Fold:
Amino acid sequence: MSAGENMTMTTVPSQKERRSGGGIADLLKRLLRMRETGLILIILALFVAMSFASPYFLTWVNMRAMAMAFAVEGIVVVGMTILLISGGIDLSVGSVTALAMVIAGLLFLNGVDPWTASAVAIAACAAIGATMGFFVTRVGLHHFIVSLAVMVIARGLCLLGTGGRPLGLYTLPPEFKFIGQGSIGVIPVVIIIFVAVVVAFDFMLRRTTVFRKVFYTGSNEKAAAYSGIRTKKVVFLTTTLCSALCGVAGVIFMARFGSAQPTFGIGMELNVIAAAVIGGASLSGGSGTIFGAILGTVLLSVVSSSLALLDVSVYWQDIIRGSILLAAVTIDHYLNKRRG
Structure:
């Protein structure tokens, strides 16, 4: 064997090596194109920057507070993401969450045990979602108008039922408060419930046939209907699910704070929609992931915590959050144009 032949054999990679190298390169390219990868990198960059900017950012107390803050709101984000994928939107999530607290709180103060009161409150929220679904699918109104009206009605019911004053639920039993205040080891129960909800719905959205119909409906409702999918039923169920998860969040908030706040959740709809859109859920429907939406929630929580630790005025915080929402919607619009 000549030296030239030997050099050729040692320098030219085999077909298997080329396939392996190409596979790794393709995997890296796909990861870099994923929206979730960009969000993770942004969150990590914020963590590094804030670790230098504030000595309190990486403390256990602050990390726990951030996790508790985005965990319960993240349950609402799950419902909003699924609804956005189906082509809908819900502006009433903050008011419905507060209404769940008020219903459960009033029932408890009138002698109903907190577990039954909470179940009734969640069922009432699901009924509100079903009512919205009826007006959207049967009457033919748009999600935006229906949810806007329900937002005002639900907030009015909260104020009417409480006289505009918080309900002090000081006698809630410890076993009920445990779901909002307790911990298993060092992990708060709220985080465990949140993770369970996220994992369950993320799995169903990715793997089950029923939830795949949500994507088909949101992508092209007419084509989905021609394919035999009952699109109105899909929209009805996703609208009901979103409100039911608001009820779950409201009950957990009540257990956490030991009170029912009639003004709770004002502005929550903006945070929830922003988190879902930042995570990749399209306002036009048909795309989005639970994992991406939760990363969007984490990003907004980190930004809020950072602004508070840096002593930024609360007015500027609202301006910054609104700017983030505008940027997210702009990016979503640009990506939709490119897909078109």
